[in-house]
Amino acid sequence: MASAFVSYHACYNISYSLAKDIHYLSKLKLPKFNIRGNGSTSAVTKIRASTVSTVPHVIENVDMDLKQTRQNIPTTKQFVDPHRQGSIIENGVRYRQLVVIRSYEVGPDKTATLESILNLLQETALNHVWMSGLLGDGFGATHGMVRNDLMWVVSRLQLQVEDYPIWGEVLQLDTWVGASGKNGMRRDWELRSQATGVVFARATSTWVMMNKRTRRLSKMPDEVRAELSPWFIEKQAIMEDTPEKMKKLDDTAKHGTSSLKAKRSDLDMNHHVNNVKYVGWMLETMPDEFMEQYQLCNIILEYRKECGSSDIVQSLSEPDEENRTTDESLRSLNGMQIKYTHLLQTKGEVKNEEIVRGRTTWRKKHSKMPFPM
Amino acid sequence: MASAFVSYHACYNISYSLAKDIHYLSKLKLPKFNIRGNGSTSAVTKIRASTVSTVPHVIENVDMDLKQTRQNIPTTKQFVDPHRQGSIIENGVRYRQLVVIRSYEVGPDKTATLESILNLLQETALNHVWMSGLLGDGFGATHGMVRNDLMWVVSRLQLQVEDYPIWGEVLQLDTWVGASGKNGMRRDWELRSQATGVVFARATSTWVMMNKRTRRLSKMPDEVRAELSPWFIEKQAIMEDTPEKMKKLDDTAKHGTSSLKAKRSDLDMNHHVNNVKYVGWMLETMPDEFMEQYQLCNIILEYRKECGSSDIVQSLSEPDEENRTTDESLRSLNGMQIKYTHLLQTKGEVKNEEIVRGRTTWRKKHSKMPFPM
After folding, report:
1. Contacts of residue A115 in chain B, CB cutoff 8 Å?
2. To the nearest whole angstrom, how far is the Cα of A365 from the nearest Cα of chain B?
3. N or C: where does chain B have the smaller number of CB atoms within 10 Å of the terminal CB?
């Protein structure tokens, strides 16, 4: 199956450019792969915690059995998950989950927050891997990846929001994967209203593998390709244009906040600052008056480096020059969009290091919200 | 049904003591109430946005109809909610919902965070009201409360955690309500493992009504009592001891953080700082080394005043004197608990105003977590 995701961040200690590495990887001619799997995992050895002596062995087996009972991670492909309300559809490759927008997932306007939507993307990606029977660790790595000491790192994420779901709304969230170059994976999502079928949001992301020990990007091993490729489909949620180059902001940026620091509660189960927190930091610089009038309709994130829990982070953002020179009356016309560039970086004594660059597009909020304000 | 909750905070602009008011209310002799409802809302007029002229009327009706289609709030009692996986059980009064702990609801140790548990309490309370057909607004007020311009305010919340659910674990979360004195309501919760039936957590809370215009606490009107009382049951999730008096901390407290301020993303759909954020602020002062070794097993919150989005908040906490004098070797014994007192207050130019007082109890974390760390 599909694998995916999980901690939306390029990892730490990469001393060279992730972008350059990805470019290099996409040029590599890999041996033609041999499909050894068909989505079933019958050939996959059940992974147990490594053991060093007899007594720890027993304890660890007990722990893993307890974990298995409580968490119930399947070791073979499942088609229906009644608890998560998920199912595998479309010839066994696409994952669909029903979700209801909860009371604490909405903001003051009673529509789902951007953070909630990003959280749901993460959740369904992991559940897709879970359903595949391939989940080798908590971060979306397959058994083959675990055997090869590999983890996923995300290099790019784009989310387009047509409309925001409201509190209590029932949604269908679909996700699927495809090949991205020779060594990468694309993961897409589509979020619809269950009642009307109307699309609320679409997203796409690109993933590469990194060796956990060397912290270097890796080619996709054949055994991992055999696990993943039966799940790959061509369909794309967002048609790719030639990606526009994102300029790098500096201290002259119009809006900025420094001294952001991860709190204990910002760390995810990978002990990293979560991608969703990054987006929160990015948007914290936006002026209040702007956020009251505009809503985000597109965000593109390019990940460069992970931020550790002790890093001090600076968030910069700047509206496009053309927005600023546009006459206010024009800007307020329905359909007129405003664009911003963003940068999160760590402030080092010697040099700053980029964590993520972003581009956001904003449109005027509907004058009539689904709820009286 | 039951009503309950939603924004876990006493409201703003109360110029007198909430505690005193609650005391006064509990002494009032109210006329014996007349049960007019039986949980059905056939007699309840459907609420529409108030209208001032013909054109807005039409627009508002369209809006309300759209909202109804998208959100689908029932106007009569429902017994099963397939989307939220909720049902009304136990002679039609207790609400049970199945929930799965999601990947972003756990911390670095892969167990559900305190914030996630509190969020789920809020969510199930609201869904209980939703199922009752009595939901009059987004904050858990009944139709009768909306007609009387009343809202819920929470005065006390206690949560006991036996054990923390892990990532992917399937839970049964039950909630129900009872009378609290003459004019208040008690809402309780019980959180169990679906697989084993073991109780993870229990919670209880006390609610009173406040007039939205005058910002004064209110007696429970007969029509509201008629809506709520058919849902009241005696059973309590946590047996009440005589509540211990919480001392008020001052600037001499051992740990403290000042200049906390709500961010845009901290505001809930009631435009207030959410209770869960309060708890986050409260625990932010706790030392890292302590939090690595200990886990919270009991928290009691006493709400005094709501904090506005522009308030600057100070968080203070202090371990009990007896903890500090206890020998370290004793403290580390399994079962030895550590207690803290907490205070959140706004720092005013003239005087500080209390938002919430808290007491927490902590025990050593299990040496063996369900996941390898």
Report:
1. 265
2. 15
3. C
Cβ pair A265:B169 closer than 8 A: no
CA separation for the pair A260, A311 (Å, rounded): 8
Choices 1.10.3210.10, 3.10.129.10, 1.10.1130.10, 3.30.1600.10: CATH for B247-366: 3.10.129.10
The reply to whether domains A1-42+57-240 and A243-373 share a CATH topology is yes
CA B24 and chain centroid, separation: 23
CB contact under 8 A, B83 and A72: no
Question: Is the CB of A108 less than 8 angstroms away from the CB of B267?
Answer: yes
Distance to chain A for B35, nearest Cα, Å? 30
**Inter-chain CB proximity B108 and A288 less than 8 Å:** no
Radius of gyration of chain A (CA): 21
Instruction: Enumerate the domain spans of chain B.
Output: 1-37+54-239, 247-366
Q: Which residues of A are catalytic?
A: 270, 272, 307
As a dihedral over the C-alpha atoms of residue A162, residue A167, residue A170, residue A171, rounded to 10 degrees, the angle is: 30
Fold for the domain defined by A1-42+57-240: Thiol Ester Dehydrase; Chain A (3.10.129)
Q: A243-373, which class in CATH?
A: alpha beta
Architecture in CATH of B1-37+54-239: Roll (3.10)
pLDDT in tens, chain A (373 residues): 333 333 333 333 333 344 444 444 444 433 332 223 333 322 222 222 232 233 334 444 556 667 777 888 888 999 999 999 999 998 899 999 999 999 999 988 889 999 999 999 999 999 999 999 999 877 889 999 999 999 999 999 999 999 999 999 999 999 999 999 999 999 999 999 999 999 999 999 999 999 989 988 999 999 999 999 999 999 999 987 777 889 999 989 999 988 888 877 787 777 778 888 899 999 989 998 999 899 999 999 999 987 777 788 999 999 998 765 455 544 444 458 999 999 999 987 888 899 999 999 999 987 555 444 3
- Contact yes or no for B190/B128 (Cβ under 8 A): no
Q: Is residue B240 less than 8 Å (CB to CB) from chain A?
A: no
Asked if B166 and A71 come within 8 Å (Cβ–Cβ), the reply is yes
Query: Is residue A372 less than 8 Å (CB to CB) from chain B?
Result: yes
B/e letters for A194-207, b = 16+ CB within 10 Å, e = fewer, are: beeeebbbbbbbbb
Query: Is B270 part of the annotated catalytic residue set?
Result: yes
Is residue B23 classed exposed, middle or buried when 0-12, 13-18 and 19+ CB atoms within 10 A define those classes? exposed
Task: Determine contact: A170 vs chain B, CB below 8 A.
Answer: yes
DSSP B44: S
